[in-house]
Amino acid sequence: MTCIALIVAAGRGTRLPGDVPKQYRMLDGVPIIRRSLMALLDHPGIDAVLPVIARDDWTLFADAANGLGTLPPIDGGATRQESVRLGLEHLALQAPDIVLVHDAVRPFADRDLIARVVAALADHAGAVPALPVTDTLKRETASAPAKAPRLVDTTVARDGLWRVQTPQGFRYADLLAAHRRFQGAELTDDAAVLEKAGLPVALVPGSDENVKVTTPEDLRQAERRLATGETRTGFGFDVHRFGPGDHVVIGGIKIPFTQGLEGHSDADVGLHALTDALLGAIGAGDIGVHFPPTDARWRGASSDIFLRHAGELIRERRGAIVNLDLTVICEQPRMGPHRPAIIARISDIIGISPNRVSIKATTTERLGFTGRGEGIAAQAVANVRLPFQD
Prior knowledge:
Blueprint: E1 3-9, E2 26-27, E3 30-31, H1 32-41, E4 48-53, H2 58-64, E5 74-75, H3 80-90, E6 98-103, H4 111-120, E7 126-132, E8 137-140, E9 152-156, E10 162-164, E11 168-171, H5 172-181, H6 190-196, E12 201-205, H7 216-227, E13 230-243, E14 247-250, E15 253-256, E16 260-261, H8 269-281, H9 287-290, H10 304-316, E17 320-329, H11 339-350, E18 357-362, H12 368-371, E19 375-386
Parallel strand pairs: 1-4, 1-6, 4-5, 7-12, 17-18
Antiparallel strand pairs: 2-3, 6-11, 7-10, 7-11, 8-9, 13-16, 13-19, 14-15, 17-19
Helix pairs in contact: 3-5, 5-6, 8-10
């Protein structure tokens, strides 16, 4: 069963003022939309993500989504409903079995919530995550003067009322048909479009943490949430000896050289050290635990697989990588000319800003095995922020 997620990002919300639309505002140093995209891209049940953006935001989107591997974005419409329909029409050739529709400013959707939505589609045409309304609801009087205090008209029964979130999930063919049928109707969300077509929509448990960032206070609360917790430090160290070959791979970059590095995978000492540092920071063992050298699947494997896996484990724990610091130890080859490319590659693999990645190179003044030119070593430090758990 194929699943493609639409992320709706064509809006120009005014309740969060600033120089750029709210979805491109920074949240703890990362654009809000990037966090929302990563939540979808990291889910194993989602095959691809299609961003629907404003025509004038292509540069903003390219910067915010750099290296994430979404489908090429498409232009949205004048309304959210039109943007979703355009996204659905764009997917007509792929015709996925199910489609998810997610707000670009909900950066905290977790794996379990997404899985609940997808699972409900086995029995229902649509499914939405929702939370029961627990606050007392009041309706104001309609005839109050413009500048007079607002007055209560009546108390509204909250029984059976729910606060709906995204991502909302649907069987693709049903949602596309409903959007085509009710094109131009003013409906508040995609579930309403399906409801108007007479199809059932299931309610699945939402999450209090799956907040929508629409006001300055929402942004402040999201910042406080990310700042709450603890910062852990992990260390990584790796060594590979030289062997036959005409290049080495360090930090995900192929560097021409007179020798190669021996190892079960591609022998990338830089990414191996960084992977162990990240795993150490979250108490998840080392690279050999997750990718045993006795397993033939990893023979010659590209080490970006290992680093990306460590990043996914951190996101599953609702963590964030604060910074990575890698030191490569060798006499040759020279690392300086390749430093910008290595930083960019690591940034792309792990999904963090390049200014959070540091690469250094040093020698041992011709002492020891690296000094004798027998191999290359690397050591890494990673700082990871996690929700506090005793």
